[in-house]
Amino acid sequence: MIYGIGTDVCDIRRIADTLQRRGPRFAEKVLGPHEIEVFRDRSARVEARGIAYLATRFSAKEAFSKAIGLGLRMPMTWRDCEIVKAASGKPEIRLHGALKAWFEARGLQAHVSVSDETDYATSFVVVETRPAALPP
């Protein structure tokens, strides 16, 4: 059963402007431990790829916060929600800390899709309740 749906569109130029104004502290505020490593690696190779990565993660976290119905208030925090890639390349949501505990206590699971073009990043998240285990 669907618990919530969230979507977000992010202007990559706005993320680039914010990053330029605030420096690496902005990325460190938004990205979790794994994400910050990927961001630094991509930025070192091609700055635009790092910025697009940051924008997709920003967008996905906004969409996730809408899908769970909390917005950006506790236990939802930027860094406790990470968007990571499975071995197949599929994006997945990895939660930490109080947000993970809150999410698991409700028996929820999330699905995320991210995309970006030159100027925009977009994300779509569906959160659903996990099906009850079937009796033996």
List the helices and strands and how they pair.
Layout: E1 2-11, H1 12-22, H2 24-30, H3 33-45, H4 47-67, E2 81-85, E3 91-95, H5 97-105, E4 108-116, E5 120-129
Antiparallel strand pairs: 1-5, 2-3, 4-5
Helix pairs in contact: 1-2, 1-4, 3-4
Function: Transfers the 4'-phosphopantetheine moiety from coenzyme A to a Ser of acyl-carrier-protein.
Protein name: Holo-[acyl-carrier-protein] synthase
Cofactor: Mg(2+)
Q: Distance between the terminal alpha carbons, to the nearest Å?
A: 22 Å
Shape: globular
> What is Rg?
15 Å
Separate helix tally: 5
Mean pLDDT: 93
Share of helix, binned: 40-55%
CATH architecture: Alpha-Beta Complex
CATH class: Alpha Beta
Structural class call reads alpha+beta
And the CATH topology? Ribosomal Protein L22, Chain A
Function: Transfers the 4'-phosphopantetheine moiety from coenzyme A to a Ser of acyl-carrier-protein.
EC number: 2.7.8.7
Keywords: Cytoplasm, Fatty acid biosynthesis, Fatty acid metabolism, Lipid biosynthesis, Lipid metabolism, Magnesium, Metal-binding, Transferase
Cofactor: Mg(2+)
Please give a structural write-up.
The chain has 136 residues and is an alpha+beta fold. The chain has one domain: 4'-phosphopantetheinyl transferase domain (Ribosomal Protein L22, Chain A, Alpha-Beta Complex), CATH 3.90.470.20. 45% of the residues lie in helices and 29% in strands. It has 5 helices and 5 strands, in the order βααααββαββ. Strands 1-5-4 form a 3-stranded antiparallel β-sheet. Strands 2-3 form a two-stranded antiparallel sheet. Helix 1 packs across helix 2 (24-30), helix 1 (12-22) packs across helix 4 (47-67) and helix 3 (33-45) packs antiparallel against helix 4. The radius of gyration is 15 Å and the shape is globular. The two termini are 22 Å apart. The mean pLDDT is 93.
